[in-house]
Amino acid sequence: MVRGSRGTVKENSSSSNYITGFDGLRAIGVLLVIFYHINPELFPGGYFGVPIFMVISGYLITCSLMREVRQKGKIDYRSFFSRRAKRLYPALVTMLFATSSYILLFQRNLLDKLWQIVLSNLTYLYNWWQIFNGQSYFERFADNESPFTHLWTLSIEGQFYLIWPFVFFLLYKFVKSNQKRSRIVLVLALISAFEMAVLYSPANINRVYYGTDTRSVSILLGCALAFVWPVSRLNRHLNRESRILIDSCGGISALVMLIMIFTVRDQSSGLYRYGMLIFSAFATILIAAVSHPGGSFNRILTNPIFSFIGKISYGIYIYQFPVMIFFENKVKLISKHPIIYPVIEIIIIIGISTFSYYFIEQYFAKVTWSSLKDDFKQIFELKNKPQSKIGMMALVPILILGLSSNVLSVFAKGQNPNDTPLARKIKANTKLQKAHNKLAEKKALIANKESRKLEKNKSLSRSFSKSQHKKYEVLAKKHPVNQEYEKYGLTQFELQMGQHIGLTAIGDSVMVDGQPVLTKIFPKIVIDAVVSRQASELPDLLKQKADQGIIADTIVIGLGTNGILTPNIIDETMKIATTQRDVFWITDHVPTRSWQDSNNAVLVQESHKYNNMHIIEWHKFVNSHNEWLYADLTHPNQEGSVQYGTFIAKNILKTLEKK
Questions:
Q1: What is the DSSP string of 560-574?
Q2: 464 has pLDDT over 70
Q3: Which stretches are transmembrane (predicted)?
Q4: For residues 28-50, b (16+ Cβ closer than 10 Å) or e, as one string?
Q5: Which of 62, 200, 327, 398 could cysteine-pair with 272, CB 3.0–4.6 Å?
Q6: What pLDDT score was predicted for residue 12?
Q7: What are the φ and ψ backbone dihedral angles of 165, each rounded to 5 degrees?
Q8: For domain 421-657, which architecture applies?
Q9: What is the mean pLDDT of residues 599-625?
């Protein structure tokens, strides 16, 4: 602990020890989360706002319990749980029932399992419900995306509030010094981080992302800090050296956190193996700097804007997803106005959160059970209590409609997102892809070896190319193939050519969707396409295939549906492909996501740097043909799959034919 200028540590006279800088941290944390949900390509690590909240919670609750034990000699569990419930429950219940009411009135396709979601949130078990009933990938591109997904963190904090006072009591009873208590809690935090690293699986991150045991690391680090750095015992007066030390530690921590926020993506394996621990550790150091009354960070983070956002941050957090989901369901083409629409969403979120803070949270923070009953009875007569009247008048219809929607949801038969036509089609195509690749990969390995031999002998390569050209002409006349695709603009010569060309294709669910047509036109193609694949995975994946010797002379890439595509990803990919291979990039068509246009702009811009990089303008081709797409406006339907496959084939074959 840093000592004061006189060499002592004095307890502050203030009983509340309210740290205004924490409002600033809360404001930053909740804004990061919102920006991450709105624009993950600009704020790839915005989800780190959640660990900031968790460290603050662990720190403040532990400081509060320490102060209570010091003043009263015991913990008043009833009072503790009552304070927490009055602080958290009213806004949560209002949000759950208000969202349920909207679902009942305007979006009944979300009624399925609604009562389970609401009940698990009210009992603070929603994170585990998420693990066992996790949101399907297909919900992200349909009208079934849950407006409650983000509430997992409230369940973890709720479980912490229920369990931690008892753990704290045991530590105080059986461990005699705060330093030892802090070490024990620190060990528990490291165990949590270790468990996250061990249980991490790229195939399904729900277990480590939502698990109480794996996400407790952040809260426990805050608890450990409180034992050795309690705000009530930090001296306001510091000597120059101590102040510089605290500010330097806070500054370095803030810088590291900022770098991670802009560089560490949610699909990165490093995030779960060590990244979450590292970020939480630096967040803990920053919180130590902010909490010290003699440091500069508390003052830096204290201003009217941060103070206001920090106060309503709880409401902002719980209402963000319902607003975004419902808004984007009504206004589907988000990519047309990637700035205006998010600004509108933020304004709506702040407006609802402000109302919630002043008329729900503040009202219930002061109310008692008896006064609540009186206010309910006199709902239309509260002339001298405008706050109570407005709050109650808003709450009553919300509760009635919300309760009705939850009762109806018990009998609702919602469509399983894994059993939609799109989901069934992608599952079937994935099986076909695996079966096709077993044979195609073996042939590709042999063909690639032959291709390398031809590269070494240019004259032989030219003569081989001429003989192949004549062969295609003969076959086109005598043995026509895939004639059903001629009406899509493919000549019989090109279709014959496609039968003999080896390709390596890497993509996401959109490519899986169009896989059957591609494999029919290009029997020698090897397609590696999976749902939810991020473009950031591409360089490593291509490098792995290069090491195995199974990359064809022609590469087709269809990525970007699920997130940002950066120039660095393209540069790394083109370097691995080398100038000896033609690389075809398919533009993204995902109008419900803000990154569509930026991804396509990056592709066009980067194509000017490489002679062997070719752009297939799928977005421009399909943009005026929604009838070719499923309701998500992203994945091709039956007719769209044929259009997708033939359009890509036509672009590839016409380019290669000219060579």
A1: -SSS---HHHHHHHH
A2: no
A3: 21-39, 45-66, 87-105, 151-172, 184-203, 215-232, 244-265, 271-293, 305-327, 339-360, 390-412
A4: bbbbbbbbbbbbbbebbbbbbbb
A5: 200
A6: 39
A7: -55, -35
A8: 3-Layer(aba) Sandwich (3.40)
A9: 97
The encoded tokens of residue 224 equal 């450990």
466 phi, psi to nearest 5 deg: -65, -40
pLDDT at 391: 63
Following CA atoms 293, 297, 298, 303 in sequence, which dihedral angle do they give, to the nearest 10 degrees?
150
Output the pLDDT for position 348: 98
Say whether pTM exceeds 0.85. Answer: no
Cα–Cα distances in angstroms (integers) from residue 570 to residues 23, 517, 560, in the given order = 41, 26, 12
**Terminal Cα distance for the chain, rounded:** 72
Q: How many CA atoms lie within 13 A of 552 on its CB side?
A: 25
**Vertex 653, ends 652 and 657: CA angle to 5°?**
125
The per-residue b/e assignment along 549-576, b for 16 or more CB within 10 angstroms, e otherwise, is ebbbbbbbbbbbbbbbbbeebbebbbeb
364 vs 478, residue with greater confidence:
364
Please tell me the chain's helix, strand, coil percentages from 3-state DSSP, rounded to the nearest 5. Answer: 70, 5, 25
Closest CA to 525 of 561, 497, 484, 560: 497
Helix (H) or strand (E) holding 279, with range, is helix 276-291
Average pLDDT over residues 307-326: 96
Gap between the Cα atoms of 362 and 346, Å rounded = 22
Helix (H, G, I), strand (E, B) or coil at 504: strand
The domains of the chain are located at 31-419, 421-657
Rounded Cα distance, 516 and 66, in Å: 65
Query: How far, CA to CA in Å, does 147 sit from each of 130, 247, 525?
Result: 13, 40, 40
- pLDDT one-digit tens code per residue, 384-424: 556 566 666 777 788 788 888 888 777 776 666 667 788 88
More confident residue, 460 or 95: 95
Both tokens of 537, joined, read 């995975």
